[in-house]
Amino acid sequence: xxxxxxxxxxxxxxxxxxxxxAGLAPGLTLADARARxxxxxxxxxxxxxxARLLDAVAEDCDRVTPIIVIDAPDGLVLxxxxxxxxxxxxxxxxxxxxxxxxxxGLNVRTVxxxxxxxxxxxxxxxxxxxxxxxxxxxxxxxxxIAALGLAHKDQLAISRAGLKTIGAxxxxxxxxxxxxxxxxxxxxxxxxxxLAPSPLTPRRAVPMLWAEQRFAEPIGRMEDIEATLANLGExxxxxxxxxxEGARRMEAGFHRADGAVRRIAVETGRGLRDVxxxxxxxxxxxxxxxxxxxxxxxxxxxxxxxxxxxxxxVSQPELDGRALEADEVANLADRLSARFGQERVLRFVAxxxxxxxxxxxxxxxxxxxxxxAAWPALSAGEPPLRPPRIFxxxxxxxxxxxxxxxxxPRAFHWRRREHRVVAHExxxxxxxxxxxxxxxxxxxxxxxxDADGRRFWLFRVGDYGVEGAPPRWFLHGAFx
Length: 480
Description:
CATH architecture of the largest domain: 2-Layer Sandwich
Helix content: 25-40%
Largest sheet: 6 strands, antiparallel, barrel
Strand content: 25-35%
CATH topology of the largest domain: Dna Ligase, domain 1
Distance between the termini: 77 Å
Radius of gyration: 35 Å
Number of helices: 13
Strand order of the largest sheet: 12-13-14-15-16-17
CATH class of the largest domain: Alpha Beta
Order of helices and strands: EEHHEHEEHHHHHHHEHEEHEHEEEEEEEE
Number of strands: 17
Structural class: alpha+beta
CATH superfamily of the largest domain: DNA polymerase, Y-family, little finger domain
């Protein structure tokens, strides 16, 4: 018997079959239970351990279908649409799954039905194993009111009205129950009978497409694993070609014979359906993982899933001389990201701001930047308005000669060297973003060129002829 604290009092959370026969039930206080049966074997309820076990069982069920819903605290809902033929039909699938759980020491009840709520209710309160298509309403008529999962007070109110079964409720006009218990009750009744859709939230993202290979004898050699992955990659790429799409995010799942599952995921910067490039990414990822791919007693199922894709037109490199070059750069970015991780391979995107210190930011090269602005267009033959690289923070310089009040410096010292200015442009006043830096001062920027042909980007903070501290000069960047 398992107990847990409820408002400071120990109450029964779960009982064995023998304890149930003796009259004990969940919700009873531990003191009352010991008064009836002094010699009770009691353990503390560990719901976190139960949740971990349920998640491990769900992970093992992934070998049957990738669409799995956790029905806490002790149930799973599997969408096996189109999966029955892989196991000799629905009866074979149910028998094989029940047998597998039995070998693991789990006592389970499995039901196959056309509606999730129907299967859930029959597994908890009924005796039917497989419901024929269209027979959901008939299959649940004999179930008790508790199959609806209503609050205890609502169940008690319905029972006092003489309605004991789902069939008795279904024979009454639904408007009566809606007025008394609300639309939630009638909605549950409709879903239970398979008359309304049941929304499901899978525990993992549902792949847009996948291919898998099952083995009667588990495999363990890396050569066999890579060959299997390559075959699945060819099948997936054929499906992508038929859909005129490319894969952006893929995942390879390796299911061990003991139920453990290892997953390796890769992402690309653009749609991909080239099996050779795909295998290069997975090899890079396998070589980079800290925990090697341990086959244990072998893998009896390998599955390759496409989690995210995009439309991909047929490339015509002869019409665009830079198409092959762009593909090579994208392939390099994909391989580097697979080996070192996305957060370590970055690219710059423009920001919509006039502040030069915030004009660009770095994002992972494979990540889409929806809020990125367009880079400013450069005029042919004109020097850039901003240096390609700026100093953070700006470096202070000492001005030896400057025109006042708004002229550029004629000479300045930087890095122990004097630079004499022979040409300049400016000033360009750039005010701070007041909603970010209310106390920052405006800056007057100058593009200058020294006698050696070097070009710099200087700015002044403060004005000449104003009482107080003299203006300060900084070097914010260098051209070239």
